[in-house]
Amino acid sequence: MRRNHPETATPRTGRVRATGLWVAAFTLLAGSAVLPAREAPAPGNPSPNVLGRSEQPLKQYRAYRRMHAATDKGKHEAWMEAWTELDHGRFSYQIVSERGSDMVRGKVLRSMLEREMELVNSGNTAKGDLTPANYEFTEAGHDTDGARVVQIKPKRSDVLLVDGRAVLNDGGDLLRVEGRLAKNPSFWTSLVNIVRRYARIGGVRVPVATETTAKVKMVGTSHMQVLYDYQSINGMPVAVSEMRSAAPSHNAAR
To answer: Which pTM does this prediction carry?
Structure first.
C-alpha cells in the first residue's frame, strides 16, 4: 500500500515564497507611504495647519520624482523616475526611466504611483492630513538641533497616519514628520518607520523626500526612498537655486 508523504519545500521553493511575501508586503507598504498632494481650500481662505501657521493651498505642481526600493541585502532592487503632476485636483504621472528588478518596478514602484493616483483622484486624501480630525498634538520641547518638536498621536489606526513627531524650524515651518505607521499595512510587515521631509518652495510647503523602512517576515528589512524635484508650483516656475536649497542633505536615490 502506497503512503503519501508530506511535501518538503526545496530551497528554491522557499526563495520564491519569500520573494512573493516581500513583494506583497512591500506593495502594501508603498501604498501607505504615499504622500498625496491634494487641492486645498480656495485662495483667500488658507487653511490653518494644526501646528499654528496658515498655509497657502497647493493646487498645482509638476515634479520629477526619483524612486528606489530594495531589500536589505540588495537581492531585490529597482529604480524608477517619473514626471508627476497635480492639476485641477487630478493626479497623473509619466514614467521616464526604470531599471532593476522587473517585479519591484511593477509591483512596488509603479503600484505606488497608481495608489497615489487612486487616492487623489477619488478625493480620499484628507484622512492622511496633519489636522485635529486625524491627530492629537502635544508640545514636546526642542531636539538637539534646537528645532521645535510636536508629538503627533493618531486618533485611529490607519496606514496613512504616523505615530511620532513633527519637527519645525524657528519660523514654524514644518521640516519633517517621523515615526511609525499607526497601522501595519499587512500581517507580513512590522516596525514600519517613515520620515517625510518638507520645504517651503514658492511660498508653499511641499514634500521633498519620503524614506520608509520596514521589517518583512521571512525576508528581512526593506527600504524605499522617494525624492521630489519641482518644476512648477501653483502655476509658477520653480527656480533651480530654490530647489537646490530645499533639497534634502542626505544622499539621493541613485
So the answer is: 0.79
